[in-house]
């Protein structure tokens, strides 16, 4: 029953399967991002109160949503790494951190740019913004902790524990605007009732969220592939792969 | 599942539950300090300190906005539908500031219970609509009445 699962522990298998997924995932990501950006930034109607400045939402919301979801991906990899001692889970955890940090930073930056014209300030220490900053520090902390160890097994273990402890922050970020008085408005996209956003704006936003999920997945797979090559650089299968590529290259040159 | 792995799974669950409880207790202990602002009803009830920097949040009362003719001084009232607090501010207001809209004002309460604000921020809600939809809704409401 567990054989399919244990396949994920094999670096050559994961490397090649990631390669074949990327072959179609990258074009899909590019198309979705292009369509979503043009739809949201050019064709969606302006907002009755904020005018055109609300369009920052088409970057701000997807980046923040995927930054939160990406943390669960990272923590799940951390749990798998702790329970099954799987090297590939360590690689997934280490690869999630810089991507999540970038997305969180993008969410914070676009939020600041949006906050200036609407709220009247770049930054406010309310529950939502502050907990999002904590998420950024968690991602950066994972990277720093990983690099602080010489022993990669030890580094993986420490980061897995930190990533699990950090999961508590995700529901706090999500519910912060409901639990406390904050300057940030509550969520417009609702799961249990009608969204408080007109369909003409909601559709491009949902498309952009899907596009950012694809962007996260393809960045993660690309990062994992390079990380696999780096760690397995002294093994036979990588040597064969490199020689084969080099052979192709010289054949093309001739 | 292998017993060793089952034990590690328990440890993982323990880490998540234990850290969640710890974080929950901390946020419960700090719950008053995490709020960005006081609603007017809490200020009227005397829960906010006088003479210290605080923030007040609520809706600007319709028709309460008074602009000075020779300076940037404005006066308005903020309500949460239970109580109302007056605000005095001298400075530039954000674009989204307006009567009937959300606002967060930072400053000090004076003896008479008026907030002498040093900063006024606009708080917008989660509703996003194209202008045509709002126009159509207004026309519909007028036709109804």
Précis, in short:
The complex is a heterodimer of chains A (254) and B (145). With 254 residues, chain A is mainly α.
Protein model, in words:
Chain B: It is a single-pass type II membrane protein. The complex is a heterodimer of chains A (254) and B (145). Chain A is mainly alpha-helical and 254 residues long. Chain A has one domain. Chain A has nine helices and no strands. Chain A is globular and about 60 Å long. The model of chain A has no long low-confidence stretch (mean pLDDT 92). With 145 residues, chain B is of the alpha+beta class. Chain B has four helices and six strands. The longest helix of chain B is centred in the N-terminal third of the chain and has 27 residues, at 3-29. The interface between A and B is large, with 42 and 43 residues.
State the CATH architecture of the largest domain in chain B.
Beta Barrel
Q: H/E series of chain B, N to C?
A: HHHEEEEEEH
The chain-level structural class of chain B is alpha+beta
For the record, give the distance between the C-alpha atoms at the N and C termini of chain A, rounded to a whole number. Answer: 49 Å
Helix content of chain A: over 70%
Strand order of the largest sheet of chain B: 1-3-4-6-5
Give the largest interface pair and sizes.
Answer: A-B, 42 and 43 residues
Cytoplasmic side (chain B): 1-8
Family (chain B): Belongs to the CcmE/CycJ family.
Binding site for heme (chain B): 124, 128
Function (chain B): Heme chaperone required for the biogenesis of c-type cytochromes. Transiently binds heme delivered by CcmC and transfers the heme to apo-cytochromes in a process facilitated by CcmF and CcmH.
């Amino acid at each position: 029953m567990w054989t399919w699962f244990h396949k994920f522990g094999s670096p050559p298998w994961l490397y090649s399967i990631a390669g074949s997924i990327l072959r179609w995932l990258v074009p899909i990501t590019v198309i979705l991002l292009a369509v979503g950006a043009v739809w949201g930034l050019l064709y969606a109607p302006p907002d009755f109160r904020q005018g055109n400045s609300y369009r920052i939402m088409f970057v701000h919301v997807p980046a923040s949503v995927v930054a939160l979801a990406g943390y669960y991906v990272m923590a799940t990899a951390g749990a798998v790494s702790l329970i099954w001692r799987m090297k590939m889970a360590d690689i997934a955890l280490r690869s999630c951190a810089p991507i999540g940090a970038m997305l969180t930073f993008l969410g914070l930056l676009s939020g600041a740019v949006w906050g200036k014209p609407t709220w009247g300030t770049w930054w406010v220490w309310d529950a939502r913004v502050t907990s999002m900053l904590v998420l950024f520090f968690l991602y950066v902390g994972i990277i720093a902790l990983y690099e602080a160890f010489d022993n990669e097994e030890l580094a993986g273990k420490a980061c897995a524990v930190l990533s699990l402890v950090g999961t508590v922050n995700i529901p706090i970020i999500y519910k912060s605007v409901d639990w406390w008085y904050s300057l940030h408005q509550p969520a417009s996209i609702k799961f249990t009732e009608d969204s408080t956003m007109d369909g003409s704006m909601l559709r491009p936003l949902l498309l952009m969220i899907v596009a950012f999920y694809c962007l996260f997945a393809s960045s993660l797979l690309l990062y994992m592939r390079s990380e696999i090559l780096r760690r397995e650089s002294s093994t036979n299968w990588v040597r064969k792969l490199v020689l084969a590529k080099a052979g192709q290259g010289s054949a093309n040159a001739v | 599942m292998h017993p060793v792995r089952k034990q590690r799974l328990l440890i993982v669950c323990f880490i998540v539950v234990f850290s969640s409880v710890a974080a929950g207790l901390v946020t419960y202990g700090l719950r008053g300090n995490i709020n960005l602002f006081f609603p007017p009803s809490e200020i009227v009830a005397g829960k906010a300190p006088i003479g210290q920097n605080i923030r007040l949040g609520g809706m600007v009362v319709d028709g309460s906005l008074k602009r000075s003719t020779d300076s940037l001084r404005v006066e308005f009232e903020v309500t949460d539908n239970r109580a109302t607090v007056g605000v005095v501010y001298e400075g530039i207001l954000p674009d989204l500031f307006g009567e009937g809209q959300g606002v967060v004002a930072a400053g000090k309460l004076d003896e008479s219970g008026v907030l002498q604000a040093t900063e006024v921020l606009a708080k917008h809600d989660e509703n996003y609509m194209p202008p045509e939809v709002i126009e159509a809704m207004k026309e519909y409401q007028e036709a109804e009445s």
